[in-house]
Amino acid sequence: MFGRRLTWALVALAAAAVAECALALWSLRVAERQVLRGRVAADIQLGFAQLAADKQRLRLWAAQRQFDAGAEPRELLALAGSMRGTLDRLDALAAQAVAVDDRPPARARQLQRRDALAVLRSSVDTLVPQLGGMPAAPGAANPAAAWAAASERFAVAHGRDLRQLLAESIAREDEAVREKRVDTDRAMARMRTLWLAGAATLGALALALALYFARALRRPLAALGEAAVALQRGELGHRIQLQGSDEFALLAGSVNAMAEELSRHRERDAQRRHVLEQQVAERTRELSQALQASQAAEERRRRLFADISHELRTPTTVIRGEAEVTLRGRDKPVDEYQGTLRRIADTAGQLGKVIDDLLTVARHDIDAMDIRRVPLDLAQPLAQAVEQAQALAAAHGVRLAPAELPPRALPLQGDAQRLRQLLVVLLDNAVRYSHPGGTVRVAVEVPGGAPARAEVRIEDEGIGLAPDDLAHAFEQRWRSERARRHRPDGSGLGLAIALALARGHDGDIRLAPRDGGGTVATVVLPLTQESS
To answer: Average pLDDT over the chain, rounded to whole?
Structure first.
């Protein structure tokens, strides 16, 4: 698998990089150790040279003291402190030298160094008190003998020549410094060789892997790129010809499968587009029919307002005529005035009904959504509608039975005034199209199932509806032949208004003939969840 080969190649590169890092860390440690060795050796050499210089200054102070040339005691103390400090630093550096270089030559050199430091420390500890108590002798009989005696104190300690000891120590440390420099140069040469070898190995490995993967990737990448360009041009029939079981072959198979799926999708899209075009054509026909229906409705509305205008002119003409006739001539009997006023009142009632129909139609057309729905109980507007219709029923000699309600509440979201208006329209129709002595019944049922709904049934024993009339009952200004014979003064607007109000409450109205004569109007209204 190509992924496995790539993984091994990356592992090899990572291992080479880790080895290079390890080599760098080792080289850094070696360099630090060599630098530290050289620094310690140089510091020791410098310390012995400092001791030699301080010893020479101390000897000069002793000469000045012996010949009373102005030697100050504090200078002696300062020189003694400087020499002891130098000896302390040399002791510490000697210990550090053993820690950084414990090879046999270094250990032998360390023994010689410690022996020299012990002799020098003992010499300083002995010489300083002697010099401090040495009297001045400016007039000595034999100055040469006095100087020789003073020099003896600085030259010999514990039977050893201090000058030779310091010279040997300085020479020994100088040799150590040269050895450390040689060791450092050798170490740097080795590290440089190792670094070059490691860098060359890493570079060769990276170059070999780059060449290998460049050759291995060229053909599959070219095939995949060619396929991508073909798919971009829409050539879904193009297929990638890659054999094997590596990742590129699997990817080629996936791309081929994708192209096949896209081809099938294109065919399905073409079929769907054809179906959609057919549906658009069908919807266009429906919209054309709806437009024609709308134009027809507009034409009916214009005719409606023309008819209503005519009906408004007729009663107003009658009222004016009655009034003019009554006012013309001499005073008339009271009965004649009462008769005139009664005719005027009847005509005014008819005029008010026509005006109410006109206002209702106007509201329905303009403010169709002006239904303010709030939580209420359907029983309340139903009771108000039945009470309002009682007077009309009594005037027509029709009995309006009390509403039959279920034992539970009928909560819904609705406009109480609009619901009362809806129910009054249906009750008005039921009363007006009933025969004298007939009965109008109102009942409310809550059938089971979801969603919860209430059905208000209004039954009358009147003229009824023919089966062919049911399809046109809710059209504005439409009245059946039976209705026109029974009540010539109707406007044909009531059921259209009632249906608009019911649908404004997400409900509906159903009309059906009643067994035995009459009509059953059923108002279906959705109830809220509280009723369940």
So the answer is: 77
